[in-house]
Amino acid sequence: MKHLFLLTLTAMLVLNACDCNKSPYEYPETKKGDVVDEYFGIKVADPYRWLEDDRSAETAEWVKQQNEVTFSYLESIPYRQKIKERLTEIWNYPRTSAPFKAGGKYFFSKNDGLQNQSVYYMQESLDSEPILFLNPNTLSNDGTVSLTNFSVSNDGKYLGYGISRGGSDWREFYIKNIETGETLSDHLKWIKFSGIAWYKDGFFYNRYPTPTKGDELKGENKNSQIYYHKVGTAQEADQLIYEDTENPDWSFSASVTDDEKFLIISVTESTSGNALYFKSLETDSPVIKVINSFEKDYSVIEHVNGKLWVYTNDDAPKYQVLSLDTEKPERFNWTTLIPEDKHNVLEGISLTGGKVFANYQQDAHSQIKVFSTEGDYLYDVELPSVGTVSGFRGKADDPETFYTFSSYTYPSVVYKYNSETNESELYSQTEIDFDIDQYETKQIKYLSKDGTEVPMFIVHKKGLKLDGNNPTWLYGYGGFNVSLNPRFDVRRLLWLENGGIYAVANLRGGGEYGEEWHKAGTKMQKQNVFDDFIAAANYLVDNGYTKPKYLAIQGGSNGGLLIGAVINQTPDLFRVAFPQVGVMDMLRYQHFTIGRYWATDYGTSEDSKEMFEYLRKYSPVHAINPKLNYPAVLVTTADHDDRVVPAHSFKYIATLQNAYRGKRPMMIRIETDAGHGAGTPTSKVIEEWTDLYSFTFDQMGLIPNL
Fold it and tell me: Where is the signal peptide (predicted)?
């Protein structure tokens, strides 16, 4: 049985001594500029504004020096290499996706274990030998070119695929002839947040104008346009289908119904709410603007007998499915197909095998209900346990489909499902070098500061003693209607097998309970998110799971903001903090790439004096207090992150290093040729988690049993 051993009493006393003396770490000196902004008559200094230029030689040198300090410390940790070896062992297991049928063939992805990117295979039938079809690992030597899109044309002739270089959100599209395996000359660039919507001998996609040189990773993305690309032609010949020059901040995305009768255009100006347009592809009619506001969310599922099925939270905070008559598209003519469930959130819909599969979220875990195409409830799909389901892809007449089930202690399993008999058949599973049966997951509910009941998953070894001495890792997000559902995560296993507890709090701001839960963690109610997380930590301490000196916290992106905010508010509650790729400057986030889209969750410093003061009060950069005894902090970011630009993390750690007067490390780990997280090669992920665990064990005064 693996467990943690405490360091000697002397070492423990040193670790927990007063941190009020000079730091033992020699951080590079970060020069201060004299930039001052004025908001509603209030002047705010921004001394590290120069770090926003992440492509300057001066910033590059600062990054180099920061990494030298960080890696010098990490490399001194004696068990770091053993952690990497154990992570590599656990990681080295085969993982296979659920197959999907397209163009009369089956496709699936597989990773043998340590491949940097998963490989795609093709089968003529489920019984035939899989053929290696597309291997993203051949696109770069170090795995930093990743696959982002994989879309087969309706006639099965072509594959459209997208790649990202170095983790950037920018995409490049290519075309592959499925029969010959030849990659055609088509090469499309400057694409972001776009699918590949096949129609006849080409596809619709959305792109942005070519950015100014030097601004590719930080410049604002405006003037989105929808184009049609014909296979075999140059991008310069693509046909402009839709744009709105009067609204350069709006973004467009295109999809096509399976029968290729309608082009669907979704219009967004933020991460919440969208306008909905459609255009007949049979008559080449004008674009019809069905919904032209951004108050609610609308997503077209499919076209069925002259009706567009729309998944929406319009008049349904927990979502419903409505039917839109294309001949009478006005909102007052829509009818209800699947009404809102007042208790559970409708998370997604798919139509396959003549049935409608509704994926509901019940207290943050999946429940699959099956309906007829007339909206009549038929039955539930029986699931093996409490967990998360994805899949049920296919065409309306496909008799079979597939889904994947997983949970915190349940590795992903693929099931083949018969929509006529409602029977699930095990299709594929994997073996892993980890005794899953020794661990358990429980879901509890705790009270936040204002009395709101918040759910939390807690994962640990069976027979855990609630004596307060268990190292605990608390994770949170709390924003943008994102739900944290129980999923298997190989990164967490080393922590668990060393006696650690892993906890996930389902904070307000997320989507676990629908639109109201989301809105309760936005704008002037954002403090609710921080209160929920702090209450989760207090619950773990008060109920004997852990103590502050054994509590590590982590969050990424909006979750990075969360970590930065809570350690400013209750620093003594935590021992280790990982704000990853976080939104740390709440006064200027809207000025980079797509940051303005986040305003519906955050508000902006220009909205009003009240909003400015609210943001400034919790902004991680601006709320740093030199009088506080912060937990050990390791910020992580990447040089190709054009979602949350690394300047957020740069300015934050520079401010923290300048203000903090204690002995704990205030460090930043800056990855090269990586982005916001998606598509990061396996080798880099293992290296990052080696360092997160090494940092945590060392700062808690614990030695892992490896």
Answer: 1-17
